[in-house]
Structures are given as structure tokens and as C-alpha cells.
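[Meeting: bench + compute handoff]

Bench side (C.D.) handed over the final construct sequence. Compute side (W.E.) agreed to return the predicted structure before the next meeting so the bench team could plan truncations. Sequence as handed over:
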Amino acid sequence: MTQQLRTASDWEHREVDLRPATSDDAVLLKRWRAEASVRRYQPLRDVSVSQLRADLLTHGAADLYRCRGERFVWIIDVDDQPAGWITLVVNNWEHGLGEIGYALSTDFQGHGVMTRALVLLLPELFLRSNLERLEARCAVGNVASQRVLEKLGFALEGQLRAYFRLGNERVDHLLYSMLRSDYLPI
């Protein structure tokens, strides 16, 4: 049975896992960043494999738990097949502020994979680091990303007018957030 012939219920039974990205994943990231469906709502600049590899070598997962470093990347695997990535940018360790971004390769979109991957990552971020607030932004037209964030309990805080340039057009974005206290209610 080919991937295209799988039913929606088949996707529910597929194993979703996360692993810290390594420099070897730079080739995957380069390929995924070139996909039209990935670029549709994200202002991804063209970068070389060597640039991506250097970025991935900058910080490891252990740095996250030591509350140092600024950028972390995880690879999403579905049944041991690389499917996409999640990025965390820590804006300020002192105040526990971070921002997540994510993307899936075209073949894995629309099957609930990202929601399942973020369910795996959120406890790592809120239970094993000092992050207090996570933000996520998505283009107003990116309904799929909005649904992911809302399913996970992120709160819509507002609309950022003309926030990013996508192609030749400035696009409004929605700002979502989740606080540690939202994730771990008292």
C-alpha cells in the first residue's frame, strides 16, 4: 500500500517521535525548506547545507536544560522516517521567553502529525527548562497551523499587521502564546 492510499485512520496508528537535529539533518532541512507547501506561509530564505549544518552544531539539547543557547531544532520522525522539524528560539532566558516554529514535508501534512509532535515537545520545554512563555506566529491564511495551536491550548493574543514579507506581499500574522501556568495549572 503506498502512502497516498493510506486512510486517515492509518495515520493515527503511525508512530510519531522527536529527536534533536544533528548536523547530518542539514540535507533534509535544505530539501524541506525548498518545498512549495512549506514556503507558502513562511519567509524562509535560501541557505546552503553548510550554513544549516553550522547552525545545527551551535547548540545541543543539553544546552536547553542548562538554560543556555538561543536556537534548538528537533526532527519529527513518523515510523522512523524524517517528516519535518520544530524550532525553538529562546528570546530571553532570564524571563523564560521562547518562540516555536515548525513545518512538515508535504507528504506528512494534514494528518495530525504536528499536533502529536508538539504534544511530545511541550513537557520537555515546560518541565525541563525554565521557559515560562512560548509564542508561535502563523500567517492569517495558514488555517492548519492555527488549528494545531488551538488544539494544544495556545491562546490567540492578537493579529500582527503586515508582520512578514512573503514573496512581494506583506502578510498579517496571528500571535499565539502558552504560559507554563496554562500547561501546568495549579
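W.E. noted at the follow-up: The chain has one domain: 16-183. C.D. will use this when planning the next construct.
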